[in-house]
Design goal:
- By secondary structure, the chain is mainly beta.
- It has one helix and eight strands; from the N terminus they run αββββββββ.
- It has one domain.
- A four-stranded antiparallel β-sheet has the order 1-8-7-6, with no helix packed on it. A four-stranded antiparallel β-sheet has the order 2-3-4-5, with no helix packed on it.
- This is Lipoprotein.
- Keywords: Signal.
């Protein structure tokens, strides 16, 4: 009986797999907690600090901004503001796009998991 239980347990455990962290993307686009290579540097969006962009179906006196905390090259944490280059190594890292767009009247905020951030790096890293 003990051997039968042990075999059953082994069969169940054999079906288990370990969950590993996904390989970094190579296209400069990442969601929160994902990593992407941006023409050299590895960038990981950690936390959305601000998204005050004007909704695409509204008229605003201010376009708003997006501020994002990121980890760069595995050890440096910094804040990026949409469209504003930041010095990194021998170049400049820029948050160039944020998706999805905000839409007025929907009554719901964008879920953190739905955000996608696009980065560009100008330099030789």
């Amino acid at each position: 009986m003990k051997q039968l239980f042990s075999l059953a347990l082994l069969a169940v455990l054999a079906g288990c797999t370990t969950i590993s962290q996904a390989a970094p993307r190579q296209d400069g686009i990442a969601g929160l907690g994902e990593s992407t290579h941006v023409d050299g540097p590895l960038v990981t969006p950690l936390r959305l600090i601000e998204d005050s962009r004007c909704p695409i179906n509204a008229r605003c006196v201010w376009a708003g901004r997006v501020v994002l905390r990121v980890r760069v090259a595995g050890n440096r944490t910094m804040e990026l503001t949409l469209g504003e280059p930041q010095e990194v190594a021998d170049g400049a890292l820029t948050l160039v796009a944020v998706a999805p767009d905000r839409i007025a009247g929907e009554g719901q905020d964008i879920a953190p998991a739905d955000y996608r951030f696009t980065f560009a790096f100008d330099g030789g890293y």
